Fold:
Amino acid sequence: MNDTATASLGIPRPALAKWLPRAEAVAIPLAALICGLVVFSLFLLTQGKSPIEFYALIYKAGFSTAFSWQNTLSRVAPLLFAGLCVALPARLGLVVIGGEGAIALGGLAAAVLGASMAGASPLIGLPIMFAGAALVGGAWIGAVGWLRIRRGVNETIASLLMAYIAIALMNHLVEGPFRDPASLNKPSTAPLTDALRVGDMPIGVEVHWGFAFGVLACVISWLLMDRTTLGFAARIAGDNIRAAQVQGLPVGKLVIGFTALGGAFAGLAGFFEVTAIHGAANASLVAGYGYTGILVAFLARHNPLAIIPVATLLAGFEASSGLIQRRMDLPDATILVMEGIVFVVILLSETLYGRLPVFNPRFWETRA
Amino acid sequence: MTDIGLWGVPLAILGGAIRVSTPFLFVSLGECLTERSGRINLGLEGTLVFGAMTGYAVAYQSGSPWLGVLAAALAGAVFGLFHGWICKFRGVNDIAIGIAMMLLGMGLAFYFGKPFIQPVAPDLPAIPLGWWSDIPQVQAALQVNALFIVGGLLALALHWMFRATRIGLTIRVVGDSTDAARAIGLNPDTVRLLATAAGGALAGIGGAYLSLYYPGSWNEGISSGQGLMAVALVIFARWNPINCFWAALLFGGAGALGPALQSVGVSSGYYLFFAAPYVLTLALLILTSSPDKALHGAPGELSITK
Structure:
């Protein structure tokens, strides 16, 4: 074997070295996803339900017609942002799971700022609300990164505790200082004026602008991670923090910066929930997107571009939840069981990386 | 009721601390055992919720709350075994698995628990330790559930086990150095598997306490992160079972602050008092963590402190 050797299929060696890891990164999660769905099918069979009917309903409610796509795509935006809130810190080796809190506080910030600018033009009002939501979310999760670096506090536990604190804080403020006296049954902030609402994209289906911004956020994150020296430094720090420190990389600033960026995205999820869906901040902001975002990020293996299809898939699952409950007489937690099983299998598949001979260039050479 | 004025607040906090702390106590003792063997199980929140559902369902079906506790412990052990088995594989992140198991445990608990939201299961009995007093508030505060006492004794037993028994030493060696354990002929994977299973069983019992005593019913909001706070509590308690007991009481007291103040008419800021245990946990975590040196008393193989 020498460097000019070609593989049996006539593929030059550098191409193999380049494409095999990519094939591995796509094939293993895909296979794991399918395995997870098979395990879940077995679970359904033990419950006397038909897996075929289940998946057919998911396809029907989530992906078959323009209407079902609209149903799915309108749920993608918060999952994109919440997924980024997990994926960006994860590239630095941090497991941050408290995105739910940044969503709640970001949404609250947008709603409060919007309510205080009731007569403002959208060109002034919306950017201020956008920035406010991003800033609050970024500060909240950035604080988790700061605590990790400055005090050595475990970021997983800290972020989750802070999510509970954030939700309590939001509930307190929504029921107290910022409550709209007119909201009787469901305490809310004052409703936003129509000018300060975010509408649908002009593409013929009712999908709000959050989707486009979410996709844009994923693309920007990918460029930042994979195409800039900053992202390169972050990945080095994620692989080996000591080596990064020896290299003189500003690990502390990287950690705080990337956690804050992730938090800012989660805050934007709150911004779009408030401005495009609810029109005010209230308990509906705490809808579990932060937790589904964890699954999105791990399924995408923390690759910002992969978050887009994964979030779409999971949004389709959640969009079909209602139909599945009605047609198959299954509890609403069924989707949660499926997500849990898929999550476990995906994590289990991590053990396969670098171990399957098919993805080793030598596998193709020795057969020549 | 006898009017005892503001004395009602500390008394209600004491009573509340004993009531609220029991699940913290069991989960933290279980997590302490697991972490001493060098593994972390963040999924105990899911185990707690699943234990609460199983305990309630079995107690309802059988009429015996203690059978419910046993079933919850078994279910917890199964979750622990599964967690321990998965973590054995190379390249699998035990923290991430914990999050996945948390989701799975809650999903399964909500799925199977749906039919048990309405029915009423028998409660665990309480022991009236306040018999010596004529004041109803004192008597109410000292209605102590048997599981709390069991938990206290268990803390002592675990402490003794770690200090003075062969099993305790084995767990400690495995937790401090995988290589050293292998060198003296121990199988670290097996020890961790068993420690994780035992930890899961204890978390399951903590869950049964929630649904069978306080608050004493099964619903989907039964746990609000107690399983996760207990993990933080173990760090604060420096992996010492006796400290876990005191820390659990402290957390229980923080959780009882809101209801205690409400009972004397302070009702504003309900949500802020509700957040007190989380704030306390975070504050203690910040105060007791250190950026540059390994935590005193931490098992050497624990991924969370590395």
The mean pLDDT of chain B is 89. Residues 23-126+152-288 of chain B form one domain. The CA atoms of residues 179 and 185 of chain B lie 10 Å apart.
